[in-house]
Amino acid sequence: MELSLDELRALTGWAAACAARVLPLVPDDPRPAAAISAAREFASGAPRTQALRTAAWDALAAAGAATDPAASAAARAAVGAAGAAYLHPLASPHQVKHIVGPAQQAALARELAGGSAEAEIEWALSQAPPEVSTLLRRFPPGKPGKTRLGDLHRQLEAALRADTTRDGEGITRA
Asked: How far apart, in whole angstroms, are the C-alpha atoms of residue 18 and residue 12?
């Protein structure tokens, strides 16, 4: 399987947008914001660099250091955004987690902060460029767990795989 840079840029841009929505839940650690910024740079045409990879690892450290579960999930969304640029071209269910992960973690963060995970998912779906669904459909179905995070994964994956019509900016449910 081949993944074009254009596909990876579209995925990464969407992932960064999803993660940015919950960034305020990590107010005292600059590492998730740096990961989102690096992801946006790649999505805008910059090359994949060691700095992008390092930003993802730094955001992961921030997720581990967070004492608030919502902040940890928000930082993990930033990890996924930066990591989206490195999606592997392997026909593996595991790769699906990398596609839906940033939106999934953002939805969990929103819920843990007292908001609506479903509203966050609806927003993410409305903003998903067509390339995200097209890319996802090239992979076998994911294997989410039986946790709340798994529930969010299933919602996102099902909607992105479903027959939909496009409104030019994202997915509109049929």
From this structure: 10
Integer Cα distance of 167 and 174 in angstroms:
11
What whole-number distance in Å separates Cα of residue 127 and Cα of residue 157?
Answer: 14
Whether 67 and 35 have beta carbons less than 8 Å apart is answered as no
Sign of torsion over alpha carbons 62, 79, 97, 92: negative
pTM for this entry:
0.92
Helix axes 93-112, 69-83, angle to 10 degrees: 140
Query: Using N-to-C axis directions, what is the helix angle for 5-20 and 130-137, rounded to 10°?
Result: 110
Secondary structure of residue 98 in the 3-state scheme: helix
* Tokens standing for residue 35: 């990961």
pLDDT of 86 over the 70 cut: yes
